[in-house]
Protein: 3-phosphoshikimate 1-carboxyvinyltransferase
Organism: Erythrobacter sanguineus
Amino acid sequence: MIKSVPARARRALPEARGAVKDRRLMTSHSFAAHGPLRGTIRVPGDKSISHRALMFAGLAVGQSRITGLLEGEDVLATAAAMRQLGASILRGADGKWTVHGAGVGSLLEPKTALDMGNSGTSARLLMGLIASHAITATFTGDASLSGRPMKRVIDPLMQMGASIEASPGGTLPLMLRGAQPAVPITYRLPVASAQVKSAVLLAGLNTPGITRVIEPVPTRDHTERMLTGFGARLEVGEEGGERIIAIHGEADLRPMDVTVPGDPSSAAFFMVAATLVPGSDLTIRNVGLNPTRAGLLHVLRQMGADITEVDARDVGGEPVADLKVRHAQLAGIDIDPAIAPSMIDEFPVLFVAAALASGTTRTTGLEELRVKESDRLAVMAAALKLAGARVEEHEDGLTIHGTGGDPLAGTPEGALVATRLDHRIAMSMAIAGLASRDGVRIDDTSPINTSFPTFMGLLAEAGQ
Ligand code: S3P
């Protein structure tokens, strides 16, 4: 995978490899049955939209303001990287963020490695951004991110002319030297991945001509929506049932003010918690319901959940509503794999819902879950079994036989769950704890800060 990365930069790579470490202190915590979830909560800003708002504002010439930005570790890694690339990014005392962009084509070469922490979105999208700039950057990440596949972005970016030297297996740490000028390509996505789609489109921003991505299966479309708002010329068409997205380079982005809606992937934990715990009646305000993200809502309703949308509205070009969730007994179903991309991050908590449903829930077509922050099929199967659920693991999904609403009954001392640096495993198993006889102990809750720093506080608030 070596392609003329400069010798100076290449010498730094072994050093970066040795530097893979985790800075967080591990914090274990027990979650046990508590009273119904009631009242009104507000989940923080959408992670995908927050990353993109910082990146695109960081490329626009002039001042953008961002309201409702998610201040989780993943998004802060993107903010730090964009500063290293030349954008000025400030948080005001009112919680609003102000960004002065560096300009497409004018990114600066970072003086030190870009530390992506746990964040696959930061790593893959920023690789795309840098791939068409005449700069070299080293990307590092934590132990989880350093095991995740990057070949899926390396391949198209090398076709566009970037030089990339990755660690064995196509992983981080890696070094990327952008191409100037880069070559526009037409790229058909081999995996349903919004991150790969976005990496190619972002590389296309500073590439002369038209860069196209063909998407056989639609994935979240925040990049397309927001880039249009920032003034990029982007066309979305359809041919033979496939989506085709074309971006015109070399683009000039104009600044804009972004309001980030609440994250449906964070709301998911409370949707399931309030559904499972008897007596619950919880309103979750400001939940983003972009159709490419709303799969869990449909699936839970199919299983019998009682969730109503209140005050449907538009926030920053994205559909949003408040969700009123009341306790309901769920019934197991076979989940259509076609819905997977629109709820790809919600499967861990759906598995928890299935473990308490009556009857059997079967999922298939979920190979992608094996390359998320952890192998979410293996880790959730092990965690749920420890907590007392009946689970069978297959190559591409889980089959779960629910308790019919009885609390999960694991070991009397309570299960100790390994979360493997995966925020969504930690939060999903915390919710399983609420529906268990003996409680669930999580070995490390610190990864929750990557996407949902207020999770523990909101859980306590809703349970009071
Ligand atoms: C994301 C896309 C998804 C998702 C991730 C965020 C994004 O990954 O799992 O949490 O912001 O584009 P893939 O695109 O790799 O499926």
In short: The longest strand covers residues 306-315. The domain at 29-43+261-463 is CATH 3.65.10.10 (UDP-n-acetylglucosamine1-carboxyvinyl-transferase; Chain).
